[in-house]
Every structure is written in structure tokens, then in C-alpha cells.
């Protein structure tokens, strides 16, 4: 199904939505010249009475990525940008009031997180131990859009909750941070066209539903067609759909990626690129079921950044899915590689 043109943003930018974006403080941060475009907060990491271990997602990987980069001497903690926490008014830019209200029911949060015992916890614990960390990561993704526009690139060491749309969550994705990042960019920055490059192993059905009727957003989604979420309706709104099978190996994955990305950039020239860089494509990942090596993940990220940087397109990177303990190390190594290839600068300001 083809996307429909939207004149002046159409219903996407009614007065109330614009007012919320303009009143938001998410673009206000300590992003001084002494900081680098790496966005992270210790609040990102999720721990609630050990129950988080019942899901294969490593909910402390975000902190370990930064620790590894700091240990290597490539990133100074004082140079990391601290994002704000998305408020209810910020979230209402995309989410329905009914959906946000539903998160107060413990069984709804348990279903989204795919950890059934969470249904037994009171809302106050779920809010402080789960929802606040997710809201902080949303703040990081929104801020990353602004910082990337100003500095050419930004990495939110978190975010990428691509299974959540405006009216429902799922797959460990509570808030639609990708959608929010792009809406804030359209309203506050001098851009009119955005591209999502989603290379998580799973289909990004959340942002696909959110941007179903918005021709300003081009969606490139390369995913394992054999696994969750199998959202056949949302597939209709992918502009460049690249379906691969379980067991796809590094060489064939990277060859296909280069070919398809070239075609995507020939078809659409974005003002902002949001890159969902899930590491669940790694060999051995129990949910992604692909066979891409750690070196292949590094090359994948290098390919995407090279496409953007060579074309002077601001790029936002989000770390998204990855269900092995080794994911944090692979992400850190990939960021180091981007730095060594001079696609990003972890020491300077450009």
C-alpha cells in the first residue's frame, strides 16, 4: 500500500501536538561544546527485583557499552550528554491518552515486557524501575535528533523501541522513541524528509504503523521474516522491504545490505537518518536467529554511517535489540571502529 501525501503535515501537526513539542524541554540539555554526541544516563539500566532476568534482553547492556568505551580510553564520562526524561506531555505527542493510562495496569506492562511475574508488582515499582528508565531513553532518542542535526551524528546508547506505536506496545518496547525523535525533528529543525534504516533482526512494526500515511518518512527495514512480530499489515508501509531468512550469514547479509541501501538512497534523499542498529543479528542470538559475526556487525554499522556521512546526512544511531551478554562488547567495538575510521569523533565536537 502506497503512503499518502500529507499537505503541511495534515493531522500529524495539529495545534495541540505542536504546542506540546514547542513546550518540551527534551531539546534542552548539557550539550555544550565540551560534550561529544554520545547520549546516555545511568537511569537507562533496568532492574526490578531480579525479574528482568526472566527476559533474554540484557537490560544493563547500555551501561556496559559506555563502561567499555571509557575503559579503553576512547570516551570520557564527563563528555557524555545526559538526556532529559520524557514527560507525559512529551509522550502525548505520539501516544494516545488511553495507551499511557493502560500502562498503570501491571498486567499490561508485564505483557509488553514479556515477563509475566511483573503483573504481580504494584504500579509504583513498575513506574520507577521500568517506565522511568524507558522515558529517559526516549529523551535520549529525541535529543539525539537535535544533536545529529547540529553535529552531523549522534549515538543514543539506548532506544530503538521499534515494536511500539502510538496506541500499543510490545516486544520489550514501551514507548515509540523513533517516532517521537522524527516528530520533534520535523517540528523544531529545518527538515522535511526523514529515513529510518532499521537493521534490528525483527521487523519494526511500531514505526511502520505510526508513519503509514506520511510520505515524508521513508522506511528501510531489513529483517528476519521467520520471527516475531510477523505483522503483515505493517509490512505494507515499508518503503524498502528486505526480508531475509533464519541462518543468513555475514557475507550474504552485507552484500544484500549494500545493494538495497544504494537503491534506497537513489529513491529518497533524507534530511535526517535514524538508524536502528540492533545487535540481535549476531550469530547465536536466541531470538534473532541470524548468523552475522561480530566483525560483520562492525562492518554493517560502518556501511550505514558511510552512506550517511558521505552524503552529509545527519545520522542518529540507536542500539535497539540484542539478546546475548556479548552484545554490549560488540556495540562498544563497533563504536570504536566508527571512531577509528573517522566516521565519528569521540574526542572532539564534529
Task: Set down the secondary structure blueprint.
Blueprint: H1 15-23, E1 38-39, H2 61-71, H3 88-91, H4 97-102, H5 106-113, H6 123-151, E2 153-156, H7 177-188, E3 194-198, H8 205-210, E4 217-224, H9 232-235, E5 240-244, H10 250-267, E6 272-276, H11 294-310, E7 315-318, H12 327-340
Parallel strand pairs: 1-2, 2-7, 3-4, 3-6, 4-5, 6-7
Task: Describe the model.
39% of the residues lie in helices and 9% in strands. The termini are far apart. The chain has helices at 15-23, 61-71, 88-91, 97-102, 106-113, 123-151, 177-188, 205-210, 232-235, 250-267, 294-310, 327-340, and strands at residues 38-39, 153-156, 194-198, 217-224, 240-244, 272-276, 315-318. It has a single domain (15-22, 33-340), classed as Arginase, Chain A (3-Layer(aba) Sandwich). It has twelve helices and seven strands. By secondary structure, it is of the alpha/beta class. A seven-stranded parallel sheet has the order 1-2-7-6-3-4-5, with helices on both faces. Its EC number is 3.5.1.98. It holds the Pfam family Hist_deacetyl. InterPro entries: HDAC_classIV (IPR044150), HDACs (IPR000286), His_deacetylse_dom (IPR023801), His_deacetylse_dom_sf (IPR037138), Ureohydrolase_dom_sf (IPR023696).
Whole-number average pLDDT? Answer: 92
Helix content: 25-40%
Spatial strand order of the main sheet: 1-2-7-6-3-4-5
Detail the poorly predicted runs.
Answer: 5-9
Q: Total domains, how many?
A: 1
Indicate the structural class.
Answer: alpha/beta
Rounded Rg: 18 Å
Order of helices and strands: HEHHHHHEHEHEHEHEHEH
| CATH topology grouping | Arginase, Chain A
Q: Biggest β-sheet, characterized? A: 7 strands, parallel
Distance between the termini: 40 Å
Determine the number of helices (DSSP H or I, runs of at least 4 residues): 12
The CATH first-level class comes to Alpha Beta
The CATH H-level superfamily is Histone deacetylase domain
> In what range is the share of β-strand residues?
5-15%
**What is the approximate shape?**
globular
**Architecture, according to CATH?**
3-Layer(aba) Sandwich
User: How many E-type strands?
Assistant: 7
Amino acid at each position: 500500500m502506497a503512503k499518502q501525501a500529507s499537505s503541511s503535515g495534515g493531522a500529524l501537526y495539529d495545534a495541540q501536538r505542536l504546542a506540546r513539542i514547542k513546550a518540551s524541554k527534551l531539546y534542552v540539555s548539557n550539550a555544550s561544546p565540551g560534550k561529544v554526541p554520545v547520549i546516555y544516563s545511568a537511569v537507562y539500566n533496568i532492574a526490578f527485583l531480579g525479574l528482568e532476568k526472566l527476559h533474554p534482553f540484557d537490560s544493563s547492556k547500555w551501561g556496559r557499552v559506555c563502561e567499555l568505551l571509557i575503559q579503553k580510553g576512547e570516551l570520557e564520562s564527563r563528555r557524555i550528554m545526559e538526556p532529559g526524561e520524557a514527560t507525559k506531555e512529551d509522550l502525548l505527542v505520539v501516544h494516545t491518552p488511553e495507551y499511557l493510562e493502560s500502562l498503570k495496569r501491571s498486567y499490561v506492562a508485564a505483557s509488553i515486557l514479556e515477563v509475566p511475574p511483573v503483573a504481580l508488582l504494584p504500579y509504583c515499582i513498575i513506574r520507577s524501575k521500568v517506565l522511568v528508565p524507558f522515558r529517559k531513553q526516549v529523551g535520549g532518542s529525541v535529543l539525539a535528533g537535535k544533536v545529529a542535526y547540529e553535529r552531523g551524528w549522534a549515538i543514543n546508547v539506548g532506544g530503538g523501541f521499534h515494536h511500539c506505536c502510538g496506541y500499543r506496545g510490545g516486544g520489550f518496547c514501551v514507548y515509540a522513541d523513533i517516532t517521537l525523535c522524527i516528530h520533534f525533528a520535523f517540528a523544531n529543525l529545518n527538515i522535511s524528509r526523514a529515513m529510518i534504516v532499521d537493521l534490528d533482526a525483527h521487523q519494526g512494526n511500531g514505526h511502520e504503523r505510526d508513519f503509514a500515511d506520511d510520505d515524508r518518512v521513508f522506511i528501510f527495514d531489513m529483517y528476519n521474516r521467520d520471527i516475531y512480530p510477523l505483522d503483515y499489515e505493517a509490512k505494507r508501509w515499508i518503503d524498502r522491504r528486505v526480508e531475509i531468512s533464519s541462518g543468513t550469514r555475514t557475507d550474504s547479509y552485507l552484500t544484500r545490505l549494500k545493494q538495497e541501501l544504494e537503491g534506497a538512497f537513489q529513491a529518497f534523499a533524507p534530511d535526517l537518518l535514524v538508524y536502528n542498529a540492533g545487535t540481535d543479528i549476531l550469530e547465536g542470538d536466541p531470538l534473532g536467529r541470524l548468523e552475522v559475526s561480530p566483525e560483520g556487525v562492525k562492518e554493517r554499522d560502518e556501511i550505514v554511517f558511510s552512506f550517511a556521512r558521505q552524503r552529509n546526512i545527519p545520522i542518529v544511531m540507536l542500539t535497539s535489540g540484542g539478546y546475548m551478554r556479548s552484545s554490549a562488547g560488540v556495540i562498544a567495538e563497533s563504536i570504536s571502529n566508527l571512531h577509528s575510521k573517522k566516521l565519528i569523533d569521540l574526542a572532539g565536537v564534529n
